Structure formats: C-alpha cells, structure tokens
Predict the 3D structure of the following.
Amino acid sequence: MPQIIEDVSLHKQLKSIFGFDHFKGRQEEIIQNLLNGNDTFVIMPTGGGKSMCYQLPALISEGTAIIVSPLIALMKNQVDSIRGYGDIDGVAHFFNSSLSKSERDKVKADIIKGVTKLLYVAPESLTKEENVHFLQSIRISFFAIDEAHCISEWGHDFRPEYRRLRPIIEEIDRVPIIALTATATPKVQHDILKNLGMSEATVYKDSFNRPNLYYEIRPKKNVNKEIIKFVKTQAGKSGIVYCQSRKKVEELAEMLQVNGISAVPYHAGMDAKSRAKNQDLFLMQDVDVIVATIAFGMGIDKPDIRYIVHHDIPKSLESYYQETGRAGRDGGEGRCVAFYAHEDISKLEKLLSGKPIAEQEINKLLMQEVVAFTETSSCRRKALLHYFGEHFEEEQCNDMCDNCAHPREKFEAKEHLLLLLEVMTELKGKFKSAHLVAVLTGKENNAVKQYKHHTLEIFGKGNYEDEKFWQAVIRQALVNNLLSKEIENYGTLFINEKGLEYLDHPEFILFTKDHDFESEDDDDSIITKQKGGGALDEALMGMLKELRKQTAKKFNLPPFVIFQDPSLEEMATQYPITLDELKNISGVGEGKAIKYGQPFVDVIAKHVEENEIERPFDFAVKSVANKSAMKVSIIQAIDRKLPLHEFAKSKGVEMDDFIHEMETIVSSGTKLDLGYYLNSLVEKEDQDDIFEILRHSENGNMDDVMDEYGDVYDEKELRLMRVKFISDMGN
C-alpha cells in the first residue's frame, strides 16, 4: 500500500514538485483515495488533468508505480514531462520493445536502487514472463491503467492485451489499481470495472462537457477546397486535420502547402525520424497545421490547438470526442469541423468485411451512433453528452454547435412519440431501433417474421413516414431520456421510468427535423453560401459560350475541343481571373489554360468588376500536379507504344474505365499519340471521316459517330478515335 510522507500536505507536495498552487477539479480527492489504498476509477475528459492523479502519488509513495500505457510515443512524452520537474532522469522510465539490452539493464538498475518512481510499460511488455519475474522482486506502490477504454471491445481503441491485465497484476502483486480514461460510454465503463475486477472501486466521473468547443458538421462537397478555405480563416493558429488514409494525408498536406499554408503530414507509414520531426515542428509552432491519421495526437500536450478538422468522419463517437478534445485544452477557442457523407460510412463498413462477425456487429452499431450524431438537427452537445451517459440541457450550449446557432425546423412530436411507445409496449420485449422502425413502417424482414410481429394489429401503423423519420424520433426520445439502452445487450432499447410516465400523461413536445446530407443545398444549409460561390452565373455562362464559339472558329475546331460545358459551368460559378486560377478548373489543365485561356479570364475579370461580384475568397486554390499512378502509367505506356488492351488487362482495369482515364487526360490538355494503336484497328479513310464528323459536332457526343460507324467498329474503338481527335486537334 502506498505510504504518504507524514506531516506534509498534498498541496505542499503539489507546489514543491509541480509548482501549482491548486489542484484541478477532484484531483486531490482522487489522489487521497488512491493513497488510502483503494481501487480508483477516473473518467475525466481530455485536458482535465488525469496524469496528475497518478504522477503525484507515485512521486510521494514508497516503491515504483507501474503505469500501463498503449503507445510508445505517449510513454516517451510522459517520461520527458516528469523528468522536466526534477534533476534525476531515473525518476521515470519507460520499458518497452524499443529499448536495447543495455538500456533495459539501466532501467532495472534504477528501479532496484529505488530511484525510479514511475515505470511506463506497454501491456505486451507486462505479460512477458521475464518482466513478471522482475516486477515480483521489487516494491510496487500501485498500478495505473491509462487509456483504460482499450479494455473494452466497445471502446474506440480496443487492445486485446488490455484484457489480460488483471490476472498478470494479481500474479505480480495485489496493490491498489487506478484506471483512467477520457472517453467511456456507460457500456465501456461497465466493461472496464468488470474486466479489471474493480467492482468495489471508487468512481470519479467528471462532466464530459467541453463548453469552449464549437461542434459543426458540414456536407462533404468540394471538401479539399472547403478545408483550405476554413484553414485560411484561422491564419496563425494551430490546427489538426484528420484523414482516414495515409494517401489522403499526403495529398492534403501537399495541397495546403502549395496554397501557402504551413502544413506537414503525419501517419504511421512514415519513418520514425520524419514523424518525430513533423510532430516537433507542430509542437514548436514552426508549422500551423498537421495533417494526420488518428495515429497522431495521443498524449500530445499542446494546449493551444485552436481547431480540429475531420476530412473523414470517424468510425465511433469515442474517436470523435477524443480527437476533437485536443482542441482548446487551455480553455480558449476550439472549433471542431467534420465533413460528412453517407459514402464515408459505406467505405468504413466495407473495411470490416473479412473480420469476425461479432467485431463487424459491434463496429456497425458504433457507426450507427456516428450517423445519429451527424444527421441530428438537435443540439450536438446534448447528443454527444447523452452518448456518454450524461444529461445536458441544450439551453446551456450557448449556441456552441451549428444546430443551436442555426436551428432547423421543429415539429410537434407527441402523436409520433406515443405511437413509438405503444409499439414498444405491444412487442413485449426489448429490441433494437432497426427492428422497431421495421414494425412501424410495415417492413416484413426476417427478424419481424421470426417474432411474428407482422401479424400484430400495430404493424405498419407508422408507414405514413419513412424509416429515416422514425430513426430521428427514436434518437430524440433517447436524448430526451424517454428511452434507455441496455448495458449488457448494447443497442437494445427499453422504455424507462420517464417514458412510462409520458405514456400515462402525454404532453406537447417538439422534435427537430434531421439533416439530409444527400441534398444539403437549402437556404439554411450549415455551409453559408457566398455571392459568387454557389449558383451558376447564367449571364456569364452565355458570354463564355459565345467566346468559346469564336475561339473554336479561330482555331477551326469544334467548341467542345476548346472547353467542355462542365468546365464553362465551373468558370461561371467560381470566377477564375488569372491563368493560375483557371488551371484549377476541372478539364482545363496547364496546356489548355496557356493555349486558350487568356481571353476567358479577361472576360470573367471584366464581368466581376462591372457587376461588383464578391468572388469566393478561397478560389485561388492551387491544385497539386496530378500524380495519379494510373494516369502516369497510361502516358508512359502510350509513349512506349504498348498494346493498350493488354496493358489495361495487366493493370486489372476494365477497358471502359481505361478509356475514361484517357479522356480525362486529353481534356485537360495533355497530348496522347494514339496513332500507332488505332492504325491497326480503324482504316485510315474511316479515321478521316470520323474526324470530319467530330469536327462538325458542337458538343462532341458520340451519337453521330455511332450512327455512321457503330455497325463497323466497336464503341470502345470509336471512343478512342474521339480521344485521338481531341488530342490531335486541341492539344
């Protein structure tokens, strides 16, 4: 059991060692409980001061505290921090696979001498037999299990090794345990206490509310441009942009750089030296932005991060909460912007294929919680805190989420809510939301038939609204504490005491219509439309079409070879007024911008000036040179005069997709010499005739060519002729 030094108060120790005058929140109470020999469970949000809860008692107790930590980078950061408070480096060590034998021997020597007060170990290291034997031979003050949510399969960072900790700790020494986490739902809290055998532990749970953080979800449209626009409004401030894939991290970091934003990438695929260098650049404020996968951020002690951007929606609300929690840890401004599209969830679900069924089911349920949070139009803070088992009145949000700052349409929900509760009562059991919605809307799926719920009189009574509507009613019934979720059988719903009371005494209640991110273009969209940044400028479009016609006559080419309609539409929406800006229009590229572009940007610039149009200030987004491996390999294959059908086959690409890539390449102004390939497929006279048909086509569609030659040649061969025409004539 830890022994506190007599007659010296914790406040004096806090001041003497760490230089702080006061404890934060309930730190003192937690530390005293641990020093009294009690198991302790701490749930405290990021920035709440969890580390102090085991650091101070470790430093003032006899023996060595064993701190179980999941990441090597996190351990190193913590050890460096502790060493910074004194002049004895050996006071804290980490012990993991990164150490050489001589380094491990040095750590053991410091522990035996009684110098080391905190030893950070990975769970994998703790389970090794030789380490168990060594730890059995020393005096241990207590065990601290940091990031304790890793114990639960329902946690956002499940680590199977964490589930083996309790028997190992018992084998080493029965001393007090303190488990700590920043993110734990009621289900995860239950798992932690059960798995660590801490049913008698004193639980300290702080509010999860971070009142200084502003939460916002935006539809995922033109996402790179939107991120650049947002980051530019935060000039000089530190921020993190999270992406799911390493490739996207590299691409986005480079795009930010070429647009004048100091940014560096960070992901697990980089070598350790580069990762450490980029992390230090960010921590030392030599760069403003770090673009990262979720591998970045654990244990990063940077209090002045002002914004967190999610390029991709996280796969769980725990992940979202922890990642956004890295903003505003000093109590200052913290903006949290996430971009969301249904396709993100579909991609995440595809990644689950091949994994054990149980794991797939858990992750799908966690993703449903993410969808519920992103699509809700009620207070996001209330929804987020409800997920962590905390009640919150939305009036206290103080417009610190997009839904409170820009409220959406509400509807009177009493009749819908009563029908939902009536269905739940009639089913005489506890079911998940999908099953309830199926019964309400009259969907005869296998589960409904299995329970014979399709035979009930109430079946289909809610079919006057769709599934999405009823999911929204269920979600808002949950956050209004009329329904609850089972802890053991996660996701299963039941009517709680407040819900039963509502059934007996129903009253007027307002719910909010959910966001529809598939058609997020209404006037009160959460992205503010800017003049010149949204709708097509019909007047300018007419001028650009006329200019294209004149340019086509000048070069004796059909108009579509100059610029295709989608390119003109983008010009009439985004107003590029320099050639550099024009290059970023889809289907233009450097070659076409130089060859045809100047008159177009001149017309646009004049139109903008005469009509006092406020251009989207972020339009001057410079694109990174297209480095698509497929495009590069196509250009190289054609340069080497390889048979294209065989080349496409070798790449595992359908010929239709292969030709589409070539169409994109030539439309952007790059020349492809396809003569060597087409000369063996299409007669020379026919090539001339096809060129003549295309020369008189205004839009360049294939109808006239197919009418004339569709019986003679395959459509793919004729599409290739069109590619050759655009390349030869226009580039």
